């Protein structure tokens, strides 16, 4: 113990403590988190539907109607499927908070467990796309080059070459797809939220969806390599031009001012 | 080591010849007259003011572009033949693309130093045109385009146009989806030209869009034709500068008939050489750290694909903006011929916009009828109408430029793209007028302040209490140098219409054009157009009665 307290002031002590703390939290998390999922899986599906019904009545029925038939404030949810619910609720889009051109992504209101219950309940309204298996959207199994071509053909006209997002009319927009979870990308294609068209399996088979996910994983996540250096937000010529007009010419003019100020005369004084 | 001691020793060995250096110089002098050339030009004076270095930034950026461009040419394949990519960038492997695009990927990933060269080349190109703009504005706002430099102004303007053209063709060479969309846009504009549009399009593209010809053709234009013209024009531009000598700002000893500064050799040459490396280093630093046009994520061009945020490089951005601002109007003539006003109008407005600035010097000299030579750089405030016009033009240009990025402003600032476009349409007509009025006022205000300063001295910020209790601020008289600089500019009198009748009592006929000219001249130089600078008498009168005035 004496040895330990003597090392308390070692320059690396803080680092060691930090690492220890991180390891503990990480360990606790892995110990606890799967337990929650396991519980959800274990729970009886009819029980989940019951729970979902309660959540729905409180959080969703005011807009979508008690039986999901829709109303003046929200569309019918008959046949939207569990995938649509999972996408809308897990990305925080639903419940919709404020009137606007489009329901934006926001911090989610429901836990994964509750989301699954809502999805299970709404799926009973009518047959619709189910939540995909994780093997369906694993980017490592997809072909990013094929996905790139598919993305440019089907998605780039709204989302930009690499999914940086783009403006649509009247304040609507296709969002930036950076770091969107693969499962949500898959569900978005499957269900076509809001202004986005849906790409059912008849149009875009599951393996092509996975290729698209692999492409986005290669070019638009926080971990994707930026071969050219700092990307300026990835907006292309507009941000590059802005940079040239500010920083680029700025440093050169500063250099010019400096050179002009250092004349042979100046040395004498 | 002095030549004097060396010469006797070497003389016997070399059979009584002069040292090698001297002989070479003699040889050259005898043939091309280098001595007199060097004597005249090494003593060329270049004034010290940072804004006079903007032209040099252009020059150095151009040199950098040529150097890196030569390197890229060694590896670039200007062909639209289709190949399957097999290079080292995984997310493109197996994709069908043109050789042009594939070779650009190779330069980026498989050629040593290729990516850095691409990025230096492209950044230098963007900064080149920004520097041209800055340089042009320096020349404009100091009135350095006045006689005898009008031709050089036009040479410069031509260089700007050529730089834009070189940029546009270079941007299109990699044949990626972004630039291909730009070429398609250009094709649309060409097709909108009445009568000959379709023919022009077929001629340029060698058939239906996109065909196989456009990239090889752009390549020749980009690496040979336009740079060749630019080199020639730059040389002519520089020769004219040497011939006219440089302008300088007024000051004691700095008059309309001399140039004060550093001789070209050695001081200025050393500084210029150092500055070149500084510019090269800074651009290389930007290129090494900051990505530009990452074509590998954009994909090869295919006519069936498009993307949002498809913008040209900034110097063509205003043309994109003009098209985005223009409503998509169409007129159908004789039930059969469609005039696409949405593209045709921008196509007409664009040259008018550039022409307005290019021809301004000739407009001004028509108004002033000034035949004198001008070698003093004018302070912008002392030419309020010109300055206001220049800033108004800039605001006009920038509205078009900003409109070219309307989708990005919309998404990044949470705005509606429709509102931005409507706002831009109104702003395009209103803002330049408002800017003109405001800037002219500001210039007049500054002139008035200069006048105050000359007559009453500088406000020191020191408050003094007079014996009878009044508080006054102490004003400090300006130094002689300052006084000179503030009063050296000459002020023109407004033109006047000739008397209605001549000496013989015969009514004179004055043309409409002349009447208009007199009107404009009054607004330039009348009481509303400039503040009369203090005369020596006024100054003496006030300074002799010092104390009462503050
Ligand atoms: C390729 C682009 C260009 C290069 C390399 C270039 C180079 C230069 C250089 C080195 C100077 C002397 C230094 C200075 O005054 O800044 C100069 C002066 C001048 N430039 Fe340019 N320039 C370019 C474009 C332009 C443009 C676009 C204009 C105007 C439309 C222009 C008009 C002038 C004029 C009138 C002068 C004489 C200024 C004076 O004596 O005060 N130049 N240029």
How much strand content do the residues of chain A show?
under 5%
Distance between termini of chain A? 67 Å
H/I helix tally of chain B: 20
CATH class of the domain at 134-225 in chain A: Mainly Alpha
Q: Characterize the biggest β-sheet of chain A.
A: 2 strands, antiparallel
Low-pLDDT stretches of chain A: 31-40
CATH topology heading of the domain at 134-225 in chain A: Cytochrome Bc1 Complex, Chain D, domain 2
- Regarding quaternary structure, what we see is heterodimer
Strand composition percent of chain B: 5-15%
Protein name (chain A): Cytochrome bc1 complex cytochrome c subunit
Enzyme class (chain A): translocase
Main location (chain A): membrane
Subunit structure (chain A): The cytochrome bc1 complex is composed of a cytochrome b (QcrB), the Rieske iron-sulfur protein (QcrA) and a diheme cytochrome c (QcrC) subunit.
What does this protein look like?
The complex is a heterodimer of chains A (269) and B (550). Chain A has 12 helices and 2 strands, in the order H-H-H-H-H-H-H-H-E-E-H-H-H-H. Chain A is an all-alpha fold and 269 residues long. Among the domains of chain A are: 39-125, Cytochrome c-like domain (Cytochrome Bc1 Complex, Chain D, domain 2), CATH 1.10.760.10; 134-225, Cytochrome Bc1 Complex, Chain D, domain 2 (Orthogonal Bundle), CATH 1.10.760.10. In chain A, a hairpin with a 5-residue loop joins strand 1 (166-167) and strand 2 (173-174). In chain A, helix 3 crosses helix 6 and helix 5 (81-90) packs across helix 9. Chain A is globular and about 85 Å long. Residues 31-40 of chain A have low confidence and may be disordered. Chain B has 550 residues and is mainly α. Among the domains of chain B are: 2-41, no CATH class; 316-491 and 530-550, no CATH class. In chain B, 61% of the residues lie in helices and 7% in strands. Chain B has helices at 3-13, 20-32, 34-42, 54-73, 99-109, 114-141, 150-172, 177-191, 197-205, 214-244, 264-289, 314-325, 341-358, 360-368, 384-403, 406-412, 417-456, 480-487, 512-525, 536-544; strands at 45-46, 82-84, 96-98, 248-249, 262-263, 330-333, 337-340, 376-377, 458-465, 471-476. In chain B, the strands form 5 sheets. A two-stranded antiparallel sheet of chain B has the order 1-5. In chain B, strands 2-3 form a two-stranded antiparallel ribbon. In chain B, strand 6 (330-333) and strand 7 (337-340) form a beta hairpin. Chain B starts with a helix and ends in a 6-residue tail after the last helix. Residues 1-13 of chain B have low confidence and may be disordered. The interface between A and B is large, with 62 and 75 residues. Bound molecules: protoporphyrin IX containing FE. Chain A: The cytochrome bc1 complex is composed of a cytochrome b (QcrB), the Rieske iron-sulfur protein (QcrA) and a diheme cytochrome c (QcrC) subunit. Chain A: Keywords: Cell membrane, Electron transport, Heme, Iron, Membrane, Metal-binding, Repeat, Respiratory chain, Translocase, Transmembrane, Transmembrane helix, Transport. Chain A: Its main location: membrane.
